[in-house]
Amino acid sequence: MRIDIITVLPELLASPFEASILKRAVDKGLVEVHFHNLRKYSIGAYKQVDDYQFGGGAGMVLMIEPIDKCISALKEERSYDEVIYLTPDGKQFDQKMANSLSLSKNIILLCGHYKGVDQRVRDTFITKEISIGDYVLSGGELAAAVVSDALIRLLPGVLNDETSALTDTFQDDLLAPPVYTRPREYKGLTVPDILLSGNTPEIEKWREDQAHKRTQERRPDLFED
Ligand code: ADE
Question: Does this model's pTM top 0.85?
Answer without folding.
Answer: yes
